[in-house]
UniProtKB/TrEMBL annotation:
GO molecular function annotations of the record: lipid binding
Signal peptide start and end residues: none
The organism of origin for this protein: Hymenobacter busanensis
Name of the protein in question: START domain-containing protein
Domain START residues, every copy: 67-243
InterPro entries on file: START-like_dom_sf (IPR023393), START_lipid-bd_dom (IPR002913), START_lipid_transfer (IPR051213)
GO CC terms: cytoplasm
Coiled coil: none
Alphabetical list of PROSITE patterns matching this protein: START
Amino acid sequence: MDTPFLGLRYCHLSLYFYQLTLSAFPQLPISMRLSSACFALLLTVLCPAASGVAAERAPRAETKTHWRLETDKEGIKVYSRVSDDSRFKEIKVHCEMPGTLSQLVAMYSDVDQYPYVISNTKSARLLRRVSETELFYYLETQMPTPVANRDVAMRLQFSYDAASQQLLISTTHAAGLVPPQPGRVRVPYWSGLWTVRPLTPNRLQVDYTFRVDPGGELPTWLVNMVAPVAPYRSFVQLRRALQLPRYQGRSFAFLSGPAATTSQR
């Protein structure tokens, strides 16, 4: 359970917002850094009083059927939109990156390496590998003190259509696989879908959409505000990770065709 000391909690969350801003945009000019710091301070002052109202207030005017661009940097575009059936925003990432389908499958099958690839991941472990195309894993996400870390058991599935050369990677929460862990808040809902296709033998186009309910007592507006930041950071890490030697030259029976396995040398 999150701490009951709301003033302290929002102070830390405001600082977390500021830290996320600087880590995602390290080249911000000093004027924008100061503006971000002032905004974080304003959150610290106003959040405890306003949270009860803001958390329940209807989302700001946004078109529910259209994506809103949140970040466009280094070829990585992050979008968000309000969903009719959830108070939390749905996030979409669109980008291109060097690599092959086999490299991507190899990396996401390598659960123990998630802390080095997925932003804010404290730990990850494989629970069960059903086949090349299905596995279950446990993930713990690092949260800023004093907010409790989040954890979740996940089911990951790969599917490949040879005709279109399109790879789908789906991730959904899997309830009941891991008992509640002390000091952690269980994520009650997680759903993500990767749609990946090769543009050239060594270049991929990736569209990733996901929606998460982080559980606990975090205010909706704050979760929605910081939600687009972590995906950008994760995709920066992902691009680098795909080029690691451990993911080169791998092959998988369910993938077929040169577009799935060709790799730059």
